[in-house]
Amino acid sequence: MASLRYLLAAALVVAFVLEGSSPAQAQLSPFFYSSTCPNVTNIIREVLKNAFLSDIRIGASLIRLHFHDCFVNGCDASILLDNTTTIVSEKFAGPNINSARGFEVVDDMKAAVERACPGVVSCADILTIAAEESVALSGGPSWTNLLGRRDSRTANRTLANENLPGPNNTLTRLKDRFRNVGLNDNFDLVALSGAHTFGRAQCRTFSDRLFNFNNTGNPDPTLNTTLLQQLRQLCPQGGNGSVLTNLDVTTPDLFDNKYFFNLQIRKGLLQSDQELFSTPGADTAAIVNVFSSNQAAFFQSFVISMIRMGNLRPLTGNQGEIRLNCRRVNGNSNIETRSSSEAALVVAIALEGSSPSQAQLSPFFYSSTCPNVTNIIRGVLQKAFLSDIRIGASLIRLHFHDCFVNGCDASVLLDNTTTIDSEKFAAPNNNSARGFEVIDQMKAAVEKACPRVVSCADILTIAAEQSVALSGGPSWTNLLGRRDSRTANRTLANQNLPSPFDTLDRLKASFRNVGLNDNFDLVALSGAHTFGRAQCRFFSVRLFNFNNTGNPDPTLDATFLQQLRQLCPQGGNGSVLTNLDVTTPNVFDNKYFSNLRNRKGLLQSDQELFSTPGADTIDIVNVFRKNQAAFFKSFVTSMIRMGNLKPLTGNEGEIRLNCRRVNGNSNIQLSFSRLCLTNHHLKLSLRQIFTTPHALMHQTSFWNAFNSDIRITASLIRLHFHDCFVNGCDGSILLDNVANDTSIDSEKFSMANNNSARGFEVVDAMKAALESACPGIVSCADILAIASEQSVNLSGGPSWTVPLGRRDGRTANRSLADQNLPTPFQTLDLLKGRFTNVGLNDNTDLVALSGAHTFGRAQCQFFSQRLFNFNGTGNPDPTLNATLLAQLQQLCPQGGNGSVLTNLDLSTPDGFDNDYFSNLQANNGLLQSDQELFSTPGADTIPIVNNFSSNETAFFESFAVSMIRMGNLSLLTGTQGEIRSNCRRVNANNLSTRSSSDGGLVSSI
């Protein structure tokens, strides 16, 4: 049963989500600038990144401007207006004067946006986007901004003084100020106050707490005494009130949840902060506790409150104006229009594509389940760009080639199996589609953060958009919620995908067939050839024998023809690469269209758009050539439309755990057998090794063992632990003693294993099953690694991708096992020493991996000394809960049978969850080595236990990371070691029977 505290925390989070899940959206929309300024967020982000380089405080300053704007007559950029004869600037209100800052950066953002999209984006929306980007760039959540605000023509200093919360406010006063503007006085108040997790404050804003709180002549009694002394030194009485210090004493420049932990230990800097936790009986204290222990809950709540605050009384429609300079109202509202001829076609494009069908997709699909998904994918992509400048073009091509075959369902990512005819081998993809490894990395990163939530189809969609944005092109709000197909269709890929040799008629037919239009969509999406490369084989026919004429393509520029002939001589290497865009090959811009006009389109399918006589695509090429904004706008519209082709949603399809294969493939064993028969003499890739033993064991020996022995999962993960701690993960723990072979001193008889290590027969069965399918391929060390992951997952815990490729050791070392393996009797210092000795860290790894004691059993002999004579005192362990002590003394009487078993986890003994940590908090840890993590005074492991107790997701994520790290200890790879054919003996000792010493083992845990 989960602890009461966990249930209360969960209830609070649910209450908040229900309270705030549907903020009124006025007339705001995430798509407001999709046609008029689609790249606005990227423009603002780039200015902000540059500002961060010289001013780490700028993120906190900008979010404060947004807060202080919205609290005064709504989010209308009134705070940005300077004094004039008619404007009484809010900058000089008490809460802003000499503290509000960042105006110059907002000016820079406005100037950059005006260059790209003159007269379109309001200063109020710039502040809104800047606030979100400031949070995201500082490590916090990212969210989809609702946009469409307009700017006020006035300011109100008096209202700013009345409405804005002050640093000296009591909780009652804070609650009033939030209610007065339309925010709630509990969840919104606590969540938005959490923005004080980064930034600085001046001494004058808190110095009264240090010397004369509430005119008492004494300091604030809720202020931590150590922090009080530090602050008194920094801000002496009568000193300089402008001196700055960190709002968050722990991680001052990161957006995280440490602010709430600071409140719990009375280290809130401002009175208004500490009031949230220290006001007796306050309903805000429970919310602080939830956010302190659960960063995901804080992030989710913060996003909801930011969206709600951003919707306070916005000016929309014809209200207000779009300022040209954020510091002053416009003197003339007339804005110059485009030339009529160009505008006509641009308007036609906008009308043609402004409202693509959205099926059941939504920009908010992952807002609660994986709010940071775009940032995660962007991070992987940015790293990939460092070593492969082509990757952006490759990923957008994968998305195209996916959507053109039965819709955007990630079918292009599936590998061949007995039931899957992979689209990777269709003619338009074979030897040219690439980027699959980067998608794998994105999927792994997303699964680590949000397991089993985000589809591969949506990852492709986001990766395509981010590839464009990171290459200088537009950014847009992705509609999400696709699910993954369970099949692929190579035949349809060959039929549907456009070819580089297609005529315009053929291209138009291909687009119409899938549901796209054959003019605007065709030209806009072809514009993705503004970056990337193509192989000679895809255009060489144009150079020598176009349409079997024996002559080159007459639409190809003569100079360009000669350059290409040198690069791609007749009969030469067809795999040689050249740039699709000869002008700016790695930038997403509109130069592709100028190339077409100059007859420098590389592929026939490109040049056809401009050189086909009388084609309706020619005018569109010309508009895009002259007007990059028009191209970007149309490209975004067409990408959204293409991304909405026949998506699987709701209960259709699945969320693949590995983008290369469908979940639970029942033909996996046959597939693996065939793979082994055809490749056993070759070195198999790690992915091939991983894909099948995992499922094979799940279906056969492992599943059978699990059904007949509920303890087997805990036993198998313990074998993996005890293997890796002794000379690394090499299967040495599985080796039996062998007569006349002194190199094998079986670790099974070390103190930590003798009469307790078990599960060897199940490992034997797994090995036999694998040897039958794939003789001599899969190591015993890898079997243990996979069995551990499956043990955890089958018991309700996390799943992770197991890195594979270990080989088996040829020796065992009982002495080292005695030295290295942690024991149930160890103090925290000894445990820390054992972890650091093998290369693991002595805090997070130690606590996370100890969490494996959330299932399984232990014998009385491993904890009985705690019951009667702890540390030779003649008394029980004082850290042992009295009720549990009495129960255990009955089960394990002094001098009784030391082999009697009891549960390691009192609450859910066979489930892998986080109740183990709640047990430690209640002094119900069974083993001394467990309880030491929580009961050792001042230990750095205590806050980790607290976090894992209240946040199962945090435990699961840390456990997976630590398991992967442990699984990487001192590996044998390549030609080191061997692949044992029998896990109990090295190959040189090819004995037909087991060692007689087997019979002396007694299985206990």
UniProtKB/TrEMBL annotation:
Q: Which residues bind substrate?
A: P498
EC number(s) stated in the UniProt entry for this protein = 1.11.1.7
- Name the coenzymes or cofactors required: Ca(2+); heme b
The UniProt entry annotates the active site at: H401 (proton acceptor)
Instruction: List membrane-spanning regions.
Output: none
Q: Which cysteines are joined by disulfide bonds?
A: C370-C450, C403-C408, C456-C659, C536-C568
Cofactor: how and how many bound: Binds 2 calcium ions per subunit. Binds 1 heme b (iron(II)-protoporphyrin IX) group per subunit.
Sequence positions that bind Ca(2+) 1: D402, V405, G407, D409, S411, E423
Alphabetically sorted, this entry's keywords are: Calcium, Disulfide bond, Glycoprotein, Heme, Hydrogen peroxide, Iron, Metal-binding, Oxidoreductase, Peroxidase, Signal
GO biological process, any: hydrogen peroxide catabolic process
Residues recorded as binding heme b, renumbered to this chain, are H529
Q: Where is the signal peptide?
A: 1-26
**Positions of Ca(2+) 2 binding:** T530, D581, T584, D589
Q: Which residues form the Plant heme peroxidase family profile domain?
A: 27-330, 360-663, 704-987
SUPFAM superfamilies referenced in this protein's UniProt entry, alphabetically: Heme-dependent peroxidases
Q: Quote the catalytic activity from the record.
A: 2 a phenolic donor + H2O2 = 2 a phenolic radical donor + 2 H2O
GO MF term set: heme binding; lactoperoxidase activity; metal ion binding
PANTHER family membership: PEROXIDASE 22-RELATED, PEROXIDASE 72-RELATED
Record family assignment = Belongs to the peroxidase family. Ascorbate peroxidase subfamily.
Role, per record: Removal of H(2)O(2), oxidation of toxic reductants, biosynthesis and degradation of lignin, suberization, auxin catabolism, response to environmental stresses such as wounding, pathogen attack and oxidative stress. These functions might be dependent on each isozyme/isoform in each plant tissue.
Designated name of the protein? peroxidase
